[in-house]
Specification:
The chain is an alpha+beta fold and 253 residues long. The chain is built from 6 helices and 12 strands. It has a 12-stranded mixed β-sheet with strand order 7-8-9-10-11-1-2-3-4-5-6-12.
Length: 253
Protein backbone atom coordinates (compact mmCIF):
# COMPACT_ATOMS: atom_id res chain seq x y z
CA UNK A 1 0.00 0.00 0.00
CA UNK A 2 2.83 2.39 0.93
CA UNK A 3 4.65 1.55 -2.31
CA UNK A 4 1.49 2.20 -4.33
CA UNK A 5 0.99 5.57 -2.60
CA UNK A 6 4.65 6.45 -3.22
CA UNK A 7 4.37 5.63 -6.93
CA UNK A 8 1.15 7.62 -7.31
CA UNK A 9 2.79 10.62 -5.60
CA UNK A 10 5.78 10.42 -7.99
CA UNK A 11 3.57 10.08 -11.06
CA UNK A 12 1.40 12.99 -9.95
CA UNK A 13 4.52 15.08 -9.21
CA UNK A 14 5.96 14.36 -12.66
CA UNK A 15 2.69 15.28 -14.38
CA UNK A 16 2.51 18.55 -12.42
CA UNK A 17 6.13 19.40 -13.22
CA UNK A 18 5.78 18.90 -16.97
CA UNK A 19 2.46 20.79 -16.95
CA UNK A 20 4.15 23.74 -15.25
CA UNK A 21 7.10 23.43 -17.67
CA UNK A 22 4.72 23.51 -20.64
CA UNK A 23 2.83 26.58 -19.36
CA UNK A 24 6.04 28.36 -18.34
CA UNK A 25 7.78 27.75 -21.69
CA UNK A 26 4.82 29.23 -23.57
CA UNK A 27 5.32 32.62 -21.89
CA UNK A 28 9.06 33.08 -21.64
CA UNK A 29 11.89 34.54 -23.64
CA UNK A 30 15.59 34.74 -22.91
CA UNK A 31 19.15 35.02 -24.15
CA UNK A 32 22.02 33.08 -22.58
CA UNK A 33 25.70 33.61 -23.33
CA UNK A 34 27.96 30.57 -22.86
CA UNK A 35 31.75 30.51 -22.80
CA UNK A 36 33.37 27.45 -24.37
CA UNK A 37 36.91 26.66 -23.23
CA UNK A 38 39.47 23.87 -23.51
CA UNK A 39 42.40 23.05 -21.27
CA UNK A 40 45.67 24.11 -22.99
CA UNK A 41 47.75 21.37 -24.59
CA UNK A 42 51.36 21.29 -23.42
CA UNK A 43 54.37 21.45 -25.75
CA UNK A 44 55.23 17.88 -24.73
CA UNK A 45 51.76 16.63 -25.77
CA UNK A 46 51.95 18.53 -29.08
CA UNK A 47 55.38 17.02 -29.86
CA UNK A 48 54.03 13.56 -29.06
CA UNK A 49 51.09 14.04 -31.47
CA UNK A 50 53.28 15.30 -34.33
CA UNK A 51 55.80 12.46 -33.84
CA UNK A 52 52.99 9.92 -34.26
CA UNK A 53 52.29 11.49 -37.65
CA UNK A 54 55.93 11.23 -38.80
CA UNK A 55 54.82 10.58 -42.39
CA UNK A 56 53.47 14.13 -42.65
CA UNK A 57 55.70 16.79 -44.20
CA UNK A 58 57.21 19.60 -42.13
CA UNK A 59 54.64 22.12 -43.37
CA UNK A 60 51.77 19.90 -42.20
CA UNK A 61 53.43 19.38 -38.81
CA UNK A 62 53.83 23.15 -38.42
CA UNK A 63 50.12 23.56 -39.21
CA UNK A 64 49.20 20.86 -36.64
CA UNK A 65 51.29 22.58 -33.97
CA UNK A 66 49.72 25.97 -34.74
CA UNK A 67 46.22 24.45 -34.41
CA UNK A 68 46.94 23.05 -30.93
CA UNK A 69 48.51 26.34 -29.83
CA UNK A 70 45.59 28.40 -31.14
CA UNK A 71 42.85 27.07 -28.86
CA UNK A 72 40.92 30.20 -27.83
CA UNK A 73 37.73 30.59 -25.82
CA UNK A 74 34.60 31.24 -27.87
CA UNK A 75 31.14 32.55 -27.02
CA UNK A 76 27.91 30.80 -27.95
CA UNK A 77 24.37 32.17 -27.64
CA UNK A 78 21.10 30.44 -26.86
CA UNK A 79 17.97 32.48 -27.65
CA UNK A 80 14.48 31.24 -26.88
CA UNK A 81 10.94 32.52 -27.09
CA UNK A 82 7.84 30.53 -26.15
CA UNK A 83 8.19 27.11 -27.85
CA UNK A 84 11.24 27.88 -30.04
CA UNK A 85 14.98 28.24 -29.51
CA UNK A 86 18.08 28.87 -31.61
CA UNK A 87 21.72 28.30 -30.63
CA UNK A 88 24.62 29.83 -32.59
CA UNK A 89 28.20 31.07 -32.19
CA UNK A 90 29.47 34.62 -32.07
CA UNK A 91 30.64 35.93 -35.44
CA UNK A 92 34.21 34.68 -35.98
CA UNK A 93 35.47 38.04 -37.27
CA UNK A 94 34.51 39.69 -33.96
CA UNK A 95 36.54 37.35 -31.79
CA UNK A 96 39.57 36.34 -33.89
CA UNK A 97 42.38 38.61 -35.12
CA UNK A 98 42.95 36.41 -38.13
CA UNK A 99 41.59 33.37 -39.88
CA UNK A 100 43.62 30.83 -37.86
CA UNK A 101 41.73 27.56 -37.33
CA UNK A 102 40.39 27.30 -33.77
CA UNK A 103 39.64 23.72 -32.69
CA UNK A 104 37.50 24.95 -29.80
CA UNK A 105 35.16 26.65 -32.25
CA UNK A 106 34.36 23.27 -33.83
CA UNK A 107 33.52 21.81 -30.39
CA UNK A 108 31.26 24.81 -29.73
CA UNK A 109 29.22 24.23 -32.88
CA UNK A 110 31.21 25.92 -35.65
CA UNK A 111 29.01 27.66 -38.20
CA UNK A 112 26.07 25.37 -37.42
CA UNK A 113 22.80 26.74 -36.06
CA UNK A 114 20.78 24.54 -33.72
CA UNK A 115 17.00 24.95 -33.88
CA UNK A 116 14.36 23.47 -31.59
CA UNK A 117 10.56 23.68 -31.48
CA UNK A 118 8.83 22.01 -28.53
CA UNK A 119 5.36 22.31 -30.07
CA UNK A 120 6.26 20.55 -33.34
CA UNK A 121 8.94 18.27 -31.77
CA UNK A 122 11.53 19.53 -34.26
CA UNK A 123 15.21 19.61 -33.33
CA UNK A 124 17.91 19.85 -35.96
CA UNK A 125 21.03 21.79 -36.87
CA UNK A 126 21.87 23.59 -40.07
CA UNK A 127 25.17 22.29 -41.42
CA UNK A 128 27.22 22.55 -44.62
CA UNK A 129 29.12 19.32 -43.94
CA UNK A 130 29.32 16.79 -46.84
CA UNK A 131 29.63 19.82 -49.21
CA UNK A 132 25.93 20.63 -49.16
CA UNK A 133 23.65 22.59 -46.88
CA UNK A 134 21.63 20.17 -44.75
CA UNK A 135 19.22 20.27 -41.81
CA UNK A 136 20.41 17.36 -39.68
CA UNK A 137 18.05 16.07 -37.01
CA UNK A 138 19.49 15.02 -33.67
CA UNK A 139 18.16 12.70 -30.99
CA UNK A 140 17.50 13.19 -27.27
CA UNK A 141 20.36 12.40 -24.91
CA UNK A 142 19.88 10.05 -21.98
CA UNK A 143 20.75 11.45 -18.57
CA UNK A 144 21.20 10.10 -15.07
CA UNK A 145 20.03 12.91 -12.79
CA UNK A 146 21.68 12.78 -9.37
CA UNK A 147 20.87 14.34 -6.00
CA UNK A 148 24.20 16.18 -6.02
CA UNK A 149 23.66 19.92 -6.17
CA UNK A 150 25.48 23.24 -5.94
CA UNK A 151 24.85 26.90 -6.54
CA UNK A 152 26.03 28.56 -9.73
CA UNK A 153 25.54 32.31 -9.51
CA UNK A 154 22.03 32.89 -8.18
CA UNK A 155 20.70 29.49 -9.24
CA UNK A 156 20.50 26.14 -7.47
CA UNK A 157 21.72 23.43 -9.86
CA UNK A 158 21.64 19.64 -10.00
CA UNK A 159 24.23 17.33 -11.51
CA UNK A 160 23.32 15.06 -14.45
CA UNK A 161 25.53 12.48 -16.19
CA UNK A 162 25.20 11.79 -19.91
CA UNK A 163 24.65 8.03 -20.32
CA UNK A 164 23.74 8.10 -24.02
CA UNK A 165 26.91 6.18 -24.92
CA UNK A 166 27.84 3.79 -22.08
CA UNK A 167 30.96 2.64 -23.99
CA UNK A 168 32.56 6.09 -23.67
CA UNK A 169 35.39 6.38 -21.12
CA UNK A 170 34.47 9.97 -20.27
CA UNK A 171 30.82 10.99 -20.06
CA UNK A 172 29.70 14.61 -20.13
CA UNK A 173 28.45 16.08 -16.84
CA UNK A 174 25.86 18.86 -16.91
CA UNK A 175 24.67 21.18 -14.15
CA UNK A 176 21.11 22.38 -14.74
CA UNK A 177 18.70 24.56 -12.79
CA UNK A 178 14.98 23.73 -12.48
CA UNK A 179 14.55 27.36 -11.36
CA UNK A 180 14.55 28.23 -15.07
CA UNK A 181 12.40 25.29 -16.25
CA UNK A 182 12.88 25.59 -20.01
CA UNK A 183 13.51 22.62 -22.27
CA UNK A 184 16.24 24.36 -24.30
CA UNK A 185 20.02 23.90 -24.27
CA UNK A 186 23.43 24.89 -25.69
CA UNK A 187 24.30 22.89 -28.82
CA UNK A 188 22.56 19.50 -28.48
CA UNK A 189 22.88 18.79 -24.74
CA UNK A 190 19.13 18.29 -24.67
CA UNK A 191 16.76 16.32 -22.47
CA UNK A 192 17.07 17.92 -19.02
CA UNK A 193 14.16 19.53 -17.10
CA UNK A 194 15.82 22.91 -16.70
CA UNK A 195 18.37 25.29 -18.16
CA UNK A 196 21.97 24.00 -18.35
CA UNK A 197 24.42 26.43 -16.74
CA UNK A 198 27.59 24.33 -16.95
CA UNK A 199 28.93 21.31 -18.86
CA UNK A 200 32.14 19.40 -18.10
CA UNK A 201 33.20 17.16 -20.98
CA UNK A 202 36.73 15.82 -20.51
CA UNK A 203 39.13 18.73 -21.10
CA UNK A 204 36.32 20.96 -22.38
CA UNK A 205 34.02 23.29 -20.45
CA UNK A 206 30.82 25.20 -21.16
CA UNK A 207 29.62 27.79 -18.67
CA UNK A 208 26.81 30.35 -18.77
CA UNK A 209 28.35 33.80 -18.31
CA UNK A 210 25.27 35.95 -18.88
CA UNK A 211 21.60 35.11 -18.31
CA UNK A 212 18.81 37.40 -19.53
CA UNK A 213 15.22 36.32 -18.93
CA UNK A 214 12.63 38.52 -20.67
CA UNK A 215 15.36 40.82 -22.08
CA UNK A 216 14.52 44.36 -23.12
CA UNK A 217 15.52 43.68 -26.73
CA UNK A 218 12.79 41.52 -28.23
CA UNK A 219 13.83 37.97 -29.13
CA UNK A 220 13.02 36.86 -32.65
CA UNK A 221 13.75 33.26 -33.59
CA UNK A 222 14.59 32.80 -37.29
CA UNK A 223 14.03 29.16 -38.18
CA UNK A 224 16.67 27.65 -40.53
CA UNK A 225 14.79 26.27 -43.54
CA UNK A 226 17.36 25.97 -46.33
CA UNK A 227 18.82 22.55 -47.04
CA UNK A 228 17.67 18.95 -47.16
CA UNK A 229 16.27 17.42 -43.96
CA UNK A 230 18.38 14.45 -42.88
CA UNK A 231 17.65 11.94 -40.12
CA UNK A 232 20.27 11.38 -37.40
CA UNK A 233 20.87 7.78 -38.55
CA UNK A 234 21.48 8.85 -42.17
CA UNK A 235 23.92 11.52 -40.97
CA UNK A 236 25.88 8.89 -38.98
CA UNK A 237 26.08 6.61 -42.03
CA UNK A 238 27.33 9.48 -44.18
CA UNK A 239 30.02 10.30 -41.60
CA UNK A 240 31.13 6.65 -41.44
CA UNK A 241 31.37 6.46 -45.25
CA UNK A 242 33.33 9.72 -45.36
CA UNK A 243 35.93 8.61 -42.79
CA UNK A 244 36.31 5.19 -44.43
CA UNK A 245 37.12 6.91 -47.72
CA UNK A 246 39.71 9.09 -45.94
CA UNK A 247 41.33 5.97 -44.42
CA UNK A 248 41.48 4.32 -47.87
CA UNK A 249 43.18 7.37 -49.36
CA UNK A 250 45.75 7.34 -46.54
CA UNK A 251 46.52 3.66 -47.04
CA UNK A 252 47.19 4.26 -50.77
CA UNK A 253 49.74 7.01 -50.06
Amino acid sequence: MKIKRFLLRNIFGSICFFLVLSIYSQNISGKIMYKFSMEPISEKQIDSITKKNASQNAKMNDFTKSVFKNIKDVNGFLEFKNEESLYYLEDEMKIDDGKMFNMNRIFAGGENKYYKNIKTSEQYHESSVFDELSLIEYEDRKWQITQESKKLGNYHCFKAIDISKPEQKVNAIAWFTPEIPVNFEPINFNGLPGLILKVENGTRRIIATKIEIHPQNQIKIIKPTKGKRIKAEESRKRAETFWKSIDKQKSKQ
